[in-house]
Amino acid sequence: MVLTASSWITPTPQGIHLPGADVWVDPSVPVGRALVTHGHADHARGGHGQTIATAETLAIMALRYGVAEGAHPLVLHEALALGDGITAWLAPAGHVLGSAQVVLERQGERVVITGDYKRRPDPTCLPFEPVACDILVTEATFALPVFIHPPITGEIARLIETSAANPARCVLVGAYALGKAQRVIAELRRAGHTAPIWLHGAMEAMCRLYVAHGIDLGDLRLVSEASKEDLEGQIILCPPSALNDRWSRRLPDPITAMASGWMRVRQRAVQRNVELPLIISDHADWNELTATIRELSPAETWITHGRDDALVHWCQTHQLKARPLDLVGYDDEDD
Ligand SMILES: [Zn+2]
Ligand SMILES: [Zn+2]
Question: What's the whole-model pTM score?
Fold first, then answer.
């Protein structure tokens, strides 16, 4: 079968462009019309004329950028005609609250752009929905065989045990403010940790947004309103940038932890002075990436976002057509 999709969908360094409809997916620069997969800063930029996304992603963008101009909410599975005969709809990606895959259809061909995704259950968002397609545009953040994320239950158990074993100290967990922080909190609750969880001020608004969208995070309190004694034996969440800065000096002898897929790499933990590395990722690991490509068995796989060489090679050894896309502007904000 010869696909014509390459004529109506064009990968550019600034994002994926549909030239006939003049719509972009996750563009890294302001454009007239953008489809945005989710709220992380490397996908959701402000300043577009129109932003088409889930209501949750639009709420996250409004919180982060303070604007809701040109917001076009799209309900999951609801078809939207973009022009040039292209129809778009969204399917859940299982990455963070509101995260979606973009499904594009034209003349019997279907392209799925995963955005960031994972296949593990996450109490803070809908699970990834596999959508069969001709071209799969997949992320590749952790696309090396060394990246196999362990079950989250074990990582959360180590966090709770460390806290319980150190009643005079606190455990300070570095976690990204959108997605990772709320998932860690929700998993702590699921593991039976009912004590207050303390937040750095930079985490508060996003946690409130999750709660407003029906995600139960339990008793959350602000570090700024606590005494040093209040925080003994407690779990505190902060942005990774606050782990080693002046802010943490007022805490009771903190044990430094970090929740990230990168904690698989010892050197990354050492760089941040992390004593308790927690391998918790909101991205597909190597097994999830390859299993998903196998499951969807697209005619072509386009690979974005980082370590594409290994995944291109894996596709080729499995007789699957693959090509790397050189998109700019992606970073490690979300991991
Ligand atoms: Zn990303
Ligand atoms: Zn992301």
Answer: 0.96
